[in-house]
UniProtKB/TrEMBL annotation, chain A:
Gene3D superfamilies: P-loop containing nucleotide triphosphate hydrolases (3.40.50.300). Residues 60-74 have a biased composition (Low complexity). Residues 88-334 form the ABC transporter domain. It comes from Arabis alpina. GO terms for biological process: embryo development ending in seed dormancy; thylakoid membrane organization. This is ABC transporter domain-containing protein.
UniProtKB/TrEMBL annotation, chain B:
One of its GO terms (biological process) is embryo development ending in seed dormancy. This is SUF system FeS cluster assembly SufBD core domain-containing protein. It comes from Arabis alpina. InterPro entries: Fe-S_cluster_assembly_SufBD (IPR055346), SUF_FeS_clus_asmbl_SufBD_core (IPR000825), SUF_FeS_clus_asmbl_SufBD_sf (IPR037284), SUF_FeS_clus_asmbl_SufD (IPR011542). GO terms for cellular component: chloroplast. Residues 216-444 form the SUF system FeS cluster assembly SufBD core domain.
Length: 334, 469
């Protein structure tokens, strides 16, 4: 529940905070910002953010369950009773479209542990894609309540590029074209931004090229793909492969795949699924947004969530998807 | 569109009412646009000082003299343009007007550290050709590149048929006509395909003084004639050593592309940020000819390109791709006009501009005129502008005037800041907003820069734009 305490970000979250505080969660070990393996990634900004948050906490923690403010020096892990380490914790997340103020997410709760594969399914308009965009900080949406904690850090405090550098990756459902910027240059920029963040030497285009060529095989693409402008004139399949190529090059602790299967033929789907499976490690997690059982045949999920009207209404194993395939959403929402 | 009508009434209708080449017509046009005005004493004084400056220069060539005479005649009745004149509605030339304009004096400035180029090239300083470098195998036999006075009799006669025969110029065209010290000629004979482009490097040698407002003006003039089936690339580059150099370059380029000939024209304007640069490019295209222009302009407190493409026969192809970038307190202006008088002409125009300064201004007046006989014309025009700072200004006036009834024409204009979606895509991959903006801004111009046919020029333009950003 540490996430609750980290949610005080902007003024607007105060109102959401009060009800949470009035029913304090059971005390538990305080979640630490940084696990041993992640100490390297910890940059000044994260420390500052943590510091700020803890100061804010001091003023409002009267009824909070936190025994002591989070400290980035302590190294205790927040494993649950099964020994799993949570990677992403979403609590009662609410979000509106900035322009129309229409509420799309109405209290989403979800925890993804390290090494897990989750699938979110749901009807058109149920809020699946909005959920994934909110996670990466899309400017079209505003979070009005709840919290998102990723690797112990309050995601809502972070700019989109900081979220990416922290290890969050979203493959776009329909990636934009960027005329005039070559795929290679784009990837190189992104890759070097990551290297800078890790304090490692950046790669020049020639060094980077050799790294890329090996990654191209992962998604079964030719090298001329790199000289083309980002997504410009790409077919639907090429765009999806390109997203996975970016994932392969940049790496991610949590990959959010937003309808990575839409518009793909069977061969392309297999390529993409193979690439994603190849990137999975016991520490990495995947959150898939999909309409179809088909993708789940290739990438086996740990859990399936059904989303409806801005909430997750059911969570279960693969049998849930099978039920869905057979009887449609009526069987679940009814 | 009301404005467009005014424009047409002033300068285009006289064109239609009589044969374009007839001499009396030249007078008609001039007098139409200024009928109500008398001689402008300031212009007369300027014309006199230009004439005086040339009296010592050894140019008695008939063509140049003819240009001077007709320009002098025109200047008698042409006032300095004001914002009330439609072609200068958005373009303020008053800083030139209220400077102490002085013709350049010929002194050969030595230019060290010139960038190496492997193209046949001419270094033109203040309008005078100071250095002409042509390698032995550079130009095929029959190709001429040099001064007008060095042409043989036969070529002199051939070139004289075309030189200076233009009746839609303005004051600045005439000022060049009276002030041009020499005429540089590029001649490509029938069926000759010149592999290497000819590189014209214009330098501003004499610099004035912003304090005393002494503004030296130079009038370089080049004429290109490509005979039937010939092909050539022309590269023009305008530069100044001094980044804050105060001067005025007023160049003219005439291009005649005869039947089935091709000209690829690259134009890179990198003048100083305090200068004035007002250029005329006048192109005539015979049947089945092709003319392609790629332009990148960034310099000048005032930079203006007047581009007139006149179609002289059917089945022509015209491609204009231009990019203007204002990163300072400056005005960059493209006034282009494509006049189609014959069937099945095809023209494609893309104009892009970036204004990255709150006192920066971009102006575009893009006129495409599809006259009665120009059936089955295919004309497309697109302009896109990026305004990156509050109060940055762009004035655009895309206008198609179509009289023929069986044509395919399109035009579009977009003015915006950078696309949010594109910026977010960068951010979502860990690239900060500042770097993302920089990448998107340079990619905006890249669409034009990539069209330069020569790699050397492409790289040069790319680095130049990158340096300014």
């Amino acid at each position: 529940m540490a996430g609750v305490n980290l949610q005080l970000r902007h003024g607007y979250s105060i109102a959401q905070f009060v009800p949470t505080v009035s029913s304090p969660p059971p005390p538990r070990v305080v979640r630490l910002g940084i696990s041993p393996s992640r100490v390297l990634c910890c940059n000044l900004r994260a420390k500052i953010a943590a510091g700020l948050t803890s100061r804010r906490l001091d003023t409002v923690s009267v009824s909070s369950a936190v025994d002591s403010p989070p400290s980035s020096d302590s190294l205790t892990e927040d494993r649950d009773d099964k020994g799993r380490i949570p990677l992403l914790e979403v609590r009662d997340l609410r979000a509106v479209i900035v322009e129309s103020r229409q509420e799309i997410l109405k209290g989403v709760n979800l925890v993804v542990y390290e090494g897990e594969v989750h699938a979110v399914m749901g009807k058109n308009g149920s809020g699946k894609s909005t959920f994934s965009k909110v996670l990466v900080g899309h400017p079209d949406y505003e979070v009005t309540g709840g919290s998102i904690v990723f690797k112990g850090q309050n995601l809502l405090d972070m700019e989109p590029e900081e979220r990416s550098l922290a290890g969050l990756f979203m493959s776009f459902q329909s990636p934009v074209e960027i005329p005039g910027v070559s795929n290679m240059d784009f990837l190189n920029m992104a890759f070097n931004a990551r290297k800078r963040k890790l304090g490692q030497p950046e790669l020049d285009p020639i060094q980077f090229y050799s790294l890329l060529v090996s990654k191209l095989e992962v998604v079964n693409m030719k090298t001329d793909f790199l000289n083309r402008n980002v997504n410009e004139g790409f077919s639907g399949g090429e765009r999806k492969r390109n997203e996975i190529l970016q994932l392969a090059v940049l790496g991610a602790e949590l990959a959010i795949l937003d309808e990575i299967d839409s518009g793909l033929d069977v061969d392309a789907l297999q390529d993409v699924a193979k690439a994603v499976n190849g990137l999975l490690t016991p520490k990495n997690s995947v959150l898939m947004i999909t309409h179809y059982q088909r993708l789940l045949d290739y990438i086996k999920p740990t859990l399936i969530h059904i989303m409806e009207n801005g909430r997750i209404i059911r969570t279960g194993d693969n049998s849930l998807a099978k039920l869905l395939e057979k009887e449609g959403y009526k069987a679940i929402s009814g | 569109m009301a404005a467009a009508t005014v424009l047409s009434r002033l300068s285009l209708i006289p064109n239609l009412s009589s044969k374009p080449k007839s001499k009396p017509n030249r007078r008609t046009t001039t007098s139409v646009s200024v009928r109500a005005s008398f001689s402008d004493p300031f212009v007369l004084q300027l014309a006199e000082s230009l004439e005086d400056s040339l009296s010592i220069s050894p140019s008695s060539s008939s063509s140049l003299q003819r240009i001077r005479d007709s320009s002098a005649e025109t200047l008698l009745s042409t006032p300095w343009p004001s914002r009330k004149d439609e072609p200068f509605r958005f373009t303020d030339t008053s800083f030139i007007r209220y400077s102490q304009i002085e013709p350049v004096s010929r002194n050969s400035t030595n230019l060290e550290n010139l960038n190496e180029t492997h193209f046949p090239n001419a270094v033109i300083i203040d309008g005078f050709v100071s250095n002409l470098t042509i390698g032995e195998s550079d130009l095929p036999k029959g190709v001429y590149f040099g001064s007008y006075s060095g042409l043989g009799e036969e070529l002199t006669n051939r070139v004289s048929e075309f030189v200076g025969d233009f009746d839609s110029g303005d004051l600045f065209w005439s000022i060049n006509g009276i002030g041009a010290p020499e005429l540089t000629v590029i001649y490509v004979p029938v069926g000759c395909k010149v592999e290497k482009p000819i590189y014209l490097r214009y330098f501003a040698g004499e610099i004035g003084d912003q304090e005393t407002k002494r503004l030296p003006v130079s009038n370089p003039r080049v004429f290109v004639l490509v005979e039937e089936g010939g092909e050539i690339g022309i590269v023009e580059e305008f530069v100044c050593r001094d980044e804050d150099g105060f001067y005025w370059t007023n160049p003219v380029l005439e291009v005649v592309v005869l039947k089935n000939a091709k000209v690829k024209h690259s134009y890179l304007q990198k003048e100083s940020m305090a200068s004035a640069h007002i250029k005329w490019t006048f192109v005539r295209q015979e049947a089945e000819s092709e003319y392609e222009l790629v332009e990148v302009s960034t310099g000048g407190r005032l930079g203006r390109h007047n581009l007139h493409v006149q179609q002289l026969g059917p089945d022509t192809l015209t491609e204009l791709t231009t990019f203007h970038m204002c990163v300072n307190e400056q005005t960059l202006d493209l006034h282009s006009r494509i006049v189609l008088d014959h069937p099945r002409g095809s023209s494609r125009q893309l104009h892009k501009c970036i204004v990255a300064h709150s006192s920066g201004q971009a102006v575009f007046d893009g006129n495409v005129r599809v006259n009665r006989l120009a059936q089955q014309t295919n004309a497309g025009q697109l302009t896109r502008s990026l305004l990156l700072k509050p109060r940055a200004t762009v004035n655009i006036k895309p206008n198609l005037q179509i009289i023929a009834d069986d044509v395919k024409c399109s035009h579009g204009a977009a003015i915006s800041d950078l696309e949010e979606d594109q910026l977010f895509y960068f951010q979502a991959r860990g690239i900060d907003l500042k770097s993302a903006r920089r990448a998107l801004i340079s990619s905006f111009g890249a669409e034009v820069i990539e069209r330069f046919p020569n790699r050397e020029i492409r790289d040069q333009a790319r680095n130049h734009v990158k340096g300014l950003l």
